[in-house]
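Box 3.1 A note on notation
Throughout this textbook, protein chains are presented in two layers. The first layer is the amino acid sequence; the second is a token string describing backbone geometry. Keep the layers aligned when reading.
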Amino acid sequence: MKTIKGPGIFLAQFAGDAAPFNTLAEITKWAAKLGFVGVQIPTWDKRLFDLQRAAESQEYCDEILGTVRAAGLEVTELSTHLQGQLVATHPAYDTMYADFAPAGLDAKARQSWAVQQLHWAAKASWRMGLTAHATFSGALAWPFFYPWPQRPAGLVEEAFAELGRRWLPILNAFDEVGVDACFELHPGEDLHDGATFERFLDEVEGHKRANILYDPSHYVLQQADYLGFIDLYHERIRAFHVKDAEYNPTAKSGVYGSYLPWIERPGRFRSLGDGQVDFSGIFSKMAQYDYPGWAVMEWECAIKHPEQGAAEGAPFIQKHIIRVTDKAFDDFVGAGSDKEKNRRILGLD
């Protein structure tokens, strides 16, 4: 068994224009002081990282790694959540997603830009010695997730076939450099639970680089079995967001949220330890199944200040990381291996 690496922190929700959140050197020093030992870097934020330079320049990647290591940290993964979203988007969301890409691009140009970004992300991850990458799948079928009006026969199948066609060359690019593409299964994405991930796997022929970023908070909001999920899909889990959530339905509102703001929704994200997620159970299963990667805090909470959430997050994760054992608890009564003795015990001699 492997001891999970961590605690790490996803920097996306903390980056900003004010110090210490506006440069990689300063934000990593801030994270280190809180007790984090790894950082997941958002590749769309030029204040912290230049993805094209990283793809093209080993010298630049070495500079990034040097900056992070100078703070006493490691890079856990790179993230292309925003770019991955644009690999496949339904036209209903074109206007809202326009800000995810450079200004002035139409929908087709944004999709091409996103694909290029993912190819760069594969190469940059390789240059930095990383083995996993965090992203979103995008969505063509999401506007039709509820089956009313009745979906025409073949609609969902065609959506996933197209999703597979778009992602297969990207997955091949990740395979060429030995990096896993880890899809965060998330509402708003066509890949948002185990069933949709399996459907996607069928379309990409079970591609070995199509893997999962596991985030239990999204299963709480969907009211799915997040512990059983690990039992089913542990071989594909290659990244891990440690994020809390709660679900408190009322007579007025349930899993769909009623268009309410986050503070009023029955299902909402919380800072670590403030929600309902059974992290002891999760970390136990991750250790049991030999999860090879990092435990990375993603902070999202409608109540608590992010800096308080970050300060509490590192010790919370550290407390839950299990130092796995290298021996059985009852070894002290072991008697070694003796074939003849075993046969006598079984009454075979």
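The beta strands are 5-10, 38-42, 74-80, 132-135, 180-184, 210-214, 237-242, 244-247, 267-270, 294-297. The mean pLDDT is 96.
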